[in-house]
């Protein structure tokens, strides 16, 4: 860029807001391209090979992520029928990338509490205990 990108980005600031976030447009585009053109096609192909329903059907929306370095992320969900059971979030910076995952086990409200306790005590979950959330 021939002009200082910080000044150009600052001109876009909405004065009615309480904070300004400045992102280098060239690095932002580079990270967005890595997520959409490099990582998403591989993830989508693997999901389709496993024959899961997923969202979004086309390309995920790329979002800003608070960090000390510019980080962009995309999220996607997997469904068993019409019920979500997994949410993946791939975050990428110029230094690293990380995949966060979150699983859900949908149980009926009248499920025996002893069965739930048995799931929570499973030795496979040692060190990464699941959170129990009721809706």
In short:
By secondary structure, the protein is of the alpha+beta class. The protein has one domain.
Lay out the secondary structure.
Elements: H1 5-10, H2 25-49, E1 53-55, E2 62-65, E3 71-80, E4 83-93, E5 97-103, H3 113-120
Antiparallel strand pairs: 1-3, 2-3, 3-4, 4-5
What does this entry look like structurally?
The protein is α+β, with helices and mostly antiparallel strands and 135 residues long. It has one domain. The protein contains three helices and five strands; from the N terminus they run H-H-E-E-E-E-E-H. Strands 1, 2, 3, 4 and 5 form a five-stranded antiparallel β-sheet that branches. The mean pLDDT is 86.
Low-confidence sequence ranges:
none
Approximately how much beta-strand content do the residues carry? 25-35%
Mean pLDDT: 86
| Overall domain count | 1
Compute the number of helices: 3
Number of separate strands = 5
Fraction of helical residues: 25-40%
- Largest sheet descriptor: 5 strands, antiparallel
Radius of gyration from the alpha-carbon trace, in angstroms: 20 Å
Distance between the termini: 50 Å
Shape: elongated
- What's the order of the H and E elements? HHEEEEEH
Keywords:
135 residues, alpha+beta, 5-stranded antiparallel sheet, 3 helices, 5 strands, 29% helix, 26% strand
């Amino acid at each position: 860029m021939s002009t200082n990108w910080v000044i150009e980005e600052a001109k876009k600031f909405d004065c009615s807001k309480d904070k300004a976030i400045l992102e280098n447009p060239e690095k932002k585009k580079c990270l967005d391209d890595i997520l959409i053109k490099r990582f998403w096609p591989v993830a989508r192909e693997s999901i389709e090979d496993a024959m899961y329903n997923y969202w979004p059907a086309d390309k995920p929306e790329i979002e800003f992520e608070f960090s000390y370095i510019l980080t962009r992320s995309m999220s996607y969900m997997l469904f068993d029928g019409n019920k979500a059971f997994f949410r993946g979030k791939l975050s990428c910076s110029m230094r690293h990338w990380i995949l966060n995952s979150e699983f859900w086990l949908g149980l009926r409200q009248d499920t025996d509490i002893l069965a739930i306790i048995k799931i929570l005590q499973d030795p496979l979950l040692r060190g990464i205990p699941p959170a129990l959330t009721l809706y």
